[in-house]
Description:
Blueprint: H1 2-5, H2 9-22, H3 28-35, H4 39-42, E1 47-53, E2 61-65, H5 78-94, E3 100-103, H6 117-123, E4 128-134, E5 142-149, H7 156-174, H8 185-194, H9 203-213, H10 218-225, H11 229-243, H12 248-263
Antiparallel strand pairs: 1-2, 1-5, 3-4, 4-5
Helix pairs in contact: 9-11, 10-11, 11-12
InterPro entries: Sig_transdc_resp-reg_C-effctor (IPR016032), Tscrpt_reg_EpsA (IPR017470), Tscrpt_reg_LuxR_C (IPR000792), WH-like_DNA-bd_sf (IPR036388)
Keywords: DNA-binding, Transcription, Transcription regulation
GO biological process, one term: regulation of DNA-templated transcription
Amino acid sequence: MSFLSHFRAEELGQFLTLVQQSLRVRRHVDLFKWLQGDVQLFLPHGVMIAAWGDFSLGPSWFDVVSPLPGARTDRLCETEVSPFLKRLFDHWLSLGRHPYAIELKDEMFSPPPHTTGGLKECVREMSSALVHGIKDERGRHDCLYVVLGTEVLMNPASREALEVLLPYVDTALRQVTPLPGKHTAKSEAAEASLDLDGLGLSPREREILDWVRNGKTNQEIGMILDISAFTVKNHLRRIFQKLNVMNRAQAVATFEKLARTVRT
């Protein structure tokens, strides 16, 4: 790709270091330092919004990484940010899943007119945005990344940079446990459905089963929860025993059947 072919030896070394650093991200503070560190050399930005979930229903989770005082995840309002992010995601799909740049004054990007709190702070003093995503065909757990910054993001080179960097950004994010309270009402409802009496599942087992329901592999679940794939496998074995099933598909089907029974 031309983004890499233009690098000098020193820049290539910096990029390889950046890639290696992404594999060591484990905490939210690590993610913040990484994005505000060497990533800025290749993709200068002030705010990054990450959202993930089934976008046909609206994103279930979102997070903001920014040094700006008011740009914080816990200040985002779901009723404002969820339709806003879904609109950007749908436009990304319409472009064949290619990254795109957009000026914040563009009507398609504009947040709701009465936007307050975190979303307003995210766009304050920003003039443009880059949008790219990752479509999860297997688990319907899609990811959208919105990078906010100055007019430099409108350059084709910035789109190329985001396209090359995004797999590493996504890997880093998947290794970080979401901060408490950083999910929408949809995910809260999903978690509430897991908290059913009589199943005998521990909180960790319910958490793992929820990720299984979202199509995640043992290795992916281990990265998300910061445990080994072997530990995930052991938890699943106990889940199968408690639900009296033989495999993951049966566990999900049995759980959802029991959940419907409890709700009715």
